[in-house]
């Protein structure tokens, strides 16, 4: 009996030490990110692969030069990226041909890929020019959140759309998000219907976020998606509810649009670098009072997802950092 009690005591001591170490690590990392200084600072240039000249890199506080920017994070997407980019560029070119006032750019952020992603991205720069397609190289892998943050901070659009490199959501669905943003902007600025075609309306000046949502497809997705992804999503929804509060049914859809004013507030404050940055975006939108519109989009499962059971610890780690950082006031907000 004494031996059994000794084992129990050792187990309790071990668990207590583990909890103490984990808690200390969370506090230390949250404190380390308190001023948002740990993010990657890539050189503020784009390279034109045709002329090999450096192109000045814009910043989110600069005035918008394009109507829309499409931000695509890519990590080892050599095989999926070409199809998604072909579809995207075809849509954008067709729209620009119909509407001469429509201007765009595609910003690809290579998040430390070890395959041919960089080569694929620069092939598209050569084909469509550096004014329409640009590439940011992060050097090593930092995570989807960091890649999107970097793309948002160095884009030129009045509207900024983040979308995945796999093409899971049809690019023309951006019009659904765009339409709702314009409707909310008119309401926010007390514009009437007659102002819908008013070219003086600067959509970039009104902070609004529009989230693509797959919530309407949940029942079908549960039946077709791999079991571990269903488990991840269900558990994740519960944790998200605790961390960021209710209101958004699908925080993780990789199809989100922001006005320049919203992106300026959100992405200068984002600290999470990987899968949970979407949750931090929701939290910050609520903190800043930025309206969030959730809109159903067409979405399909594309083979090659980077989400797997090993993503769970990282998700929980980031949510713990976010909860501690904001709720203790350790993470200060730049306004």
UniProtKB/TrEMBL annotation:
Residues 69-181 form the Glycosyltransferase 2-like domain. Keywords: Endoplasmic reticulum, Glycosyltransferase, Membrane, Signal-anchor, Transferase, Transmembrane, Transmembrane helix. Pathway: Protein modification; protein glycosylation. It is a single-pass membrane protein. GO terms for cellular component: endoplasmic reticulum membrane. Its EC number is 2.4.1.117. It catalyses: a di-trans,poly-cis-dolichyl phosphate + UDP-alpha-D-glucose = a di-trans,poly-cis-dolichyl beta-D-glucosyl phosphate + UDP. It is an enzyme of class 2 (transferase). InterPro entries: DPG_synthase (IPR035518), Glyco_trans_2-like (IPR001173), Nucleotide-diphossugar_trans (IPR029044). GO terms for biological process: protein N-linked glycosylation. Belongs to the glycosyltransferase 2 family. This is dolichyl-phosphate beta-glucosyltransferase. The lineage of its organism: Eukaryota, Viridiplantae, Streptophyta, Embryophyta, Tracheophyta.
